[in-house]
Amino acid sequence: MWIIQRILTLPAFSNGIRMITREVIETMPEIRDVDCGMLNIFLQHTSASITINENADPDVQKDIQMALGKIVPNSLPYAHTLEGQDDMPAHIKSSMVGVSVDIPIGQGRLLLGTWQGIYLCEHRQTSHRRSIVLTVWGKKRNNME
User: CA nearest 10: which of 39, 61, 44?
Assistant: First the structure.
């Protein structure tokens, strides 16, 4: 079993859904050395989330963001308001979407579906830098362990 772990720190950006597939692969080039394994992506924050979704039509991300805003509006009478009006709704959206995903690796590549990409969902209005723990484990290619 081979295990590698790195931190990916993304530049700050405000409310929206941003594809990070390229950044993940660039940060963890050892994926190409894995014959069979897994990549865990864990976001170290409580007001953003990680998801896998369609990477062909950017309207999908706009619609997801719009729907989350309707489901969890900023206008509810939240008790937790110390960090701003958008903070508590961001925590709820983060819990709903999640802060971790696992992606299988096979023959040196992420086994994402044809139309799938990895996305960071920033739920706060102000820009924030986000840190993501990337952990790859598996069997090395060419039967090396």
Answer: 44
Question: Domain residue spans in the chain?
Answer: 2-138
User: What does DSSP say about strands 34-43 and 2-13: parallel, antiparallel, or unpaired?
Assistant: unpaired
Strand locations in the chain (E): 2-13, 16-19, 34-43, 48-54, 100-106, 109-110, 116-122, 128-140
> Model confidence at 143, in pLDDT bands (50, 70, 90)?
low
pTM given for the model: 0.94
CA distance 7 to 44: 10
Asked if 118 and 19 touch (Cβ cutoff 8 Å), the reply is yes
How large is the average pLDDT for residues 27-36? 97
Q: Which residues pair with 105 in a beta bridge?
A: 37, 110
Q: Note the pLDDT tens digit of each residue in 69-102.
A: 999 999 999 999 989 999 999 999 999 999 999 9
Superfamily of domain 2-138: YjbQ-like (2.60.120.460)
Q: Give the number of other CB atoms < 10 A from CB of residue 122.
A: 25
